[in-house]
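Incident review: delayed structure delivery

Summary: a single-chain prediction request sat in the queue longer than the usual turnaround. Root cause was a stuck worker, restarted by the on-call engineer. No data loss occurred. The affected request and its eventual output are reproduced below so the record is complete for anyone auditing the incident later.

Affected input:
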Amino acid sequence: MATELEIIVGTYEEFLLGYRVRPSRSNDRKYDLFQTFSTHSHTSSIRTVATNGKLVASGGADDRICVYDLEKRRAIDDLYVHDGTINSLTFVPDGSYLISGGADGKMTFVKTNNWKVDKVFERAHKGSSVNFISVHPSGKLALSIGSDLTLRTWNLINGRQAFVTSLKNKSLGSIIDFVVWSISGDYFVLTGKDSVEIWCTEKAEVIATKKCEARPSSVCWISDSDILVGMENGKLLFFNWEDENEEATICEIYETRIKAMKYVNGFLATASTSGELNLWKVINGEKIEMEMICGIDVGCRLLCLDICELVKSGIDPEIKDEVVEDESKTQVRQLTTSGCVTVEIEENDDSDDGSKRNKQIKRKNKQTKFETPQKNKQNKKQRKSAGVRLSNGFVEEDC
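Output delivered after worker restart:
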């Protein structure tokens, strides 16, 4: 069910946000997306996010990986294992390791039981940036692509590199952004400048190629033969690579780039760079059909997303709100926190007549806060007077 999913998105504005589906309170639609948490743990844009069970990891351009417990709604740890932007994060299927790839050329393996680095490949792609990592459904293999235009196969059993395949002078061109395993792991897809390639795992060769009218900006598998490609022109490309006679279906869902997609059990989450977040029901019959369930304008530039299956992860899909009453008797809902950024205003009377006041802002240690975006009017005025910008329900300091 759609109500058993939580969509996690990372934004250019440094926020990590969570959204769930609930029955709509209006008559014109059946469901709504509502925000379950927001956290401002990063100091630069969030480039990648990954989930596994109750765990969520986000990586940003601030060289930092932040890890959270989605059930307890608290931060677990900050990992400083890269010296550059974190380009890709992925958990192995059993959740025992978190694998990361960065612009510094490193590929790291972190144990999730203690969050200690188990292995680091300092020059995974000969010093070139590691752009994307995908783990085989069995958890025994991983594929990575880098700016050196090579596809590298990693043996996760012994923790070593197994094969290197050069992608230079291939049909994909000089830009390769994604490598994604199929659901069974029998195939994987590579995306290039204006085309996608389907490779057979057993043969280690290209078995199908599809041209795109714009650069692919995201890709996911619906089945072992059906693929969805999101493009920079805001259009979705549907095609079955096994049926050469079947025409591809193209539909426009956004006016701007489809930045991220994720498919889980008949549901597809999509995000655009303009801030639109939507959840679709995918009907995979003779032809793939999509029905939009709900959507929201986040108000931020969305860069990445992932989906957590709540019931499968042992998380209660029902939000139990904690009602807190403030001085103005306005009720707000707040989730469990492990600290937050607070702004204190000290008003000092420096003049004899008391007509002039200097406002001093103190910043406490910055930690993670999971909160809902509801703020009362009185607090808005107080924060604005302290030089704090409020937009879309999030508190952000103007430094």
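Verification: The chain is about 0% helix and 50% strand.
Action items: add queue-age alerting; document worker restart procedure.
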